[in-house]
Specification:
This protein folds into 2 domains: about 30 residues, no CATH class; about 50 residues, no CATH class. With about 80 residues, it is α+β, with helices and mostly antiparallel strands. It contains 2 helices and 4 strands, in the order E-E-H-E-H-E. The longest helix has 8 residues. Helices cover about 15% and strands about 25% of the residues. The termini are far apart. The radius of gyration is 13 Å and the shape is globular.
């Protein structure tokens, strides 16, 4: 699976449900004018923080930016580590 290519890719045996899915590549997401992330729940807080705050080893979501805007929609629990 080439997540740096353009377009959609098939994902098989994903470690998180659903195991079979279609995903957009980073390049494809970054071609969008706006990228919106939605996260809810305390279990998402560490990944949200790793995506938003500067760090040495950024997670994949930290590398995606929309051309004009990147928006995060979070509940209080998902934002608790910011």
């Amino acid at each position: 699976m080439d997540l740096d290519g353009k377009g959609a890719v098939a994902v098989q045996d994903s470690p998180k449900p659903p195991p079979l899915r279609v995903s957009l590549t980073r390049e494809s997401l970054s071609d969008a004018d706006e990228v919106w992330f939605v996260a809810a729940g305390e279990e998402k807080a560490p990944m949200v923080a790793a995506s938003v705050l500067p760090g040495e080893d950024p997670v994949p979501a930290a590398r995606v930016r929309g051309r004009t805007a990147t928006l995060w929609f979070l509940d209080t629990a998902a934002a608790s580590s910011l």
